[in-house]
Structure to design on (560 residues):
């Protein structure tokens, strides 16, 4: 009996040891795979960083050697800009993964416009898709709340990463479909998991649903098991020339789960991929928007696309306007001719991208001749307005609403052009005289000073420069009250950093010390950096490299 017990115990111990050995072997294999992936990552990163750097250095040299050839220099600058943007995305991926691994990821809660967010994403990904002649469709379903509360920075990162990958891994002339919609209340994610992470919005919760489908190269079932691991990339002949860190999807999954959401992916090799994301947000306190519109008036919609026409009409009906639909340009001209004769002209014409019989710009020209110079002719389109503006304005178009179509965008433009909204045009800062205002720039690096001064001077703003935080404090202290209307503050400077400089300015015993707007302008670009800037007394935070349009917006908001 005792012998049997000893044998049983030995057998159990042997089994336990075998299990331990198997676990250790599995852990060793996993560690070796991670180390192999890291080595591959470092090798790829060395190549991926050198590629855009080579373009920047090479194109700079070419541009300098052809300095008198404007077209050649412009081409070089465009390529430098593209390479710089790619280099920034590589750096951001590495920094984001570092923050996630160290547990220092901080979610921000701020008001943002869903329309602006989707428009920004479209601006980023459409040029990439256009280069490959891809059919990229960005659609919106039922959107009940446009102004939301949540972390828009990380949300944008999630969406750009997924759509950007679809563009990357889909061949030329491929098809990519993207769709956004919302669910309100306590709707659970599709897999019915309890949400324990992320932000708690309670009864005010709004689920943002997003999916992206492509007919690209797809992924094997084996790779799908590893897609969210760091440093993993599809390795094939089709992807050999595609640059990236292998961190993007790992970052996406961590961000989605940190925000209390879920992500799913389906894919078949050679057929394409499908990504689904659902994230909880909340309605912003600034959600309610009112537009002064001529209720009861008709609006003519010239659009052959049924879905777009119906969506546009529904928005108009909700605003108290009466939509009238025409599919062709000739029908629209006939309708307007009769309406003018009967003195029943609509209050505006909405031009879609699709007409059955003529280009939209031709119709705009005919209508402008018929209806006069003040009649609102509004183009509703996915086109890049910057490229289209010159021809569109010459044809008679005096309003533009970008797609995907949001109700607030449509009603806002209608309100301005039908006389319901007398607010100043948002582009008035281009013509505004800023010469009577004074801006203080605190920046220690001479090259950064030159860039910032040039960008601000191009807007017409007089700029004074402080080489460090201490100088900025002294300049403000010696200036008359109200002299500086705006201060741009770098963070990392000798003698005194930007945080301390902002705190000292706020503590000064003078009326303008609390009121002067201080904007952090720094390479520190994480959410916690924004929080630290605000805690130091700064009003806003912009990260380097600085977009000229962002500076224009800040100047306009402050001085107009």
């Amino acid at each position: 009996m005792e012998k049997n017990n000893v044998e049983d115990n030995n057998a159990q111990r042997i089994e336990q040891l075998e299990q331990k050995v198997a676990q250790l072997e599995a852990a060793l294999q996993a560690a070796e795979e991670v180390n192999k992936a890291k080595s591959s990552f470092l090798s790829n990163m060395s190549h991926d960083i050198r590629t855009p750097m080579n373009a920047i250095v090479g194109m700079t040299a070419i541009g300098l050697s052809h300095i008198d050839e404007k077209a050649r220099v412009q081409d070089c600058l465009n390529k430098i800009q593209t390479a710089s943007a790619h280099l920034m995305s590589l750096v951001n991926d590495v920094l984001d993964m570092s923050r996630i691994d160290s547990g220092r990821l901080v979610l921000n809660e701020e008001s943002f416009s869903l329309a602006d967010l989707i428009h920004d994403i479209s601006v980023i990904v459409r040029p990439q898709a256009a280069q490959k002649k891809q059919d990229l469709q960005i659609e919106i379903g039922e959107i009940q709340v446009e102004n939301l509360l949540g972390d828009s920075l990380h949300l944008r990162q999630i969406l750009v990463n997924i759509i950007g990958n679809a563009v990357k891994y889909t061949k030329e002339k491929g098809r990519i479909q993207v769709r956004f919609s919302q669910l309100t209340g306590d709707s659970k994610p599709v897999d019915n998991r309890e949400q324990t992470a992320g932000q708690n919005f309670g009864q005010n919760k709004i689920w943002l649903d997003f999916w992206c489908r492509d007919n690209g190269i797809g992924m094997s079932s084996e790779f799908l098991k590893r897609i969210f691991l760091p440093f993993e990339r599809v390795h094939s002949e089709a992807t050999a020339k595609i640059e990236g860190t292998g961190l993007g999807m790992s970052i996406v999954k961590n961000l989605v789960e940190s925000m209390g959401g879920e992500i799913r992916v389906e894919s078949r090799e050679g057929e394409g991929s499908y990504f689904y994301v659902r994230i909880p947000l909340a309605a912003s306190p600034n959600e309610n928007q009112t537009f002064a519109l001529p209720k009861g008036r008709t609006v003519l919609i010239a659009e052959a696309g049924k879905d777009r026409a119906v969506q546009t009409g529904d928005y108009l009906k909700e605003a108290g306007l009466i939509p009238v639909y025409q599919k062709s340009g000739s029908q629209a001209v006939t309708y307007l001719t009769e309406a003018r004769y009967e003195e029943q002209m609509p209050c505006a014409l909405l031009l879609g991208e699709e007409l059955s019989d003529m280009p939209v710009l031709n119709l705009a020209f005919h209508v402008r001749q018929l209806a006069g110079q003040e009649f609102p002719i509004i183009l509703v389109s996915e086109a890049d307005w910057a490229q289209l503006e010159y021809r569109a304005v010459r044809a008679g178009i005096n309003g533009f609403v970008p797609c995907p179509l949001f109700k607030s965008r449509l009603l806002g433009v209608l309100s301005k052009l039908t006389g319901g909204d007398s607010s100043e045009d948002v582009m008035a800062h281009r013509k505004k005289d800023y010469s009577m205002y004074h801006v203080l720039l605190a920046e220690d690096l001479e090259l950064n000073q030159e860039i910032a001064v040039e960008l601000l001077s191009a807007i017409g703003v007089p700029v004074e420069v402080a080489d460090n935080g201490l100088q900025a404090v002294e300049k403000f202290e010696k200036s008359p009250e109200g002299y500086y209307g705006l201060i741009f503050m770098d963070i990392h400077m000798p003698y005194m950093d930007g945080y301390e400089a902002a705190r000292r300015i706020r503590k000064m015993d003078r009326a303008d010390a609390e009121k002067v707007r201080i904007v952090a302008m720094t390479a520190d670009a994480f959410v916690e950096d924004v929080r630290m800037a605000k805690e130091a007394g700064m009003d806003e935070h912009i990260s380097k490299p600085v977009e000229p349009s962002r500076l224009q917006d800040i100047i306009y908001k402050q001085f107009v």
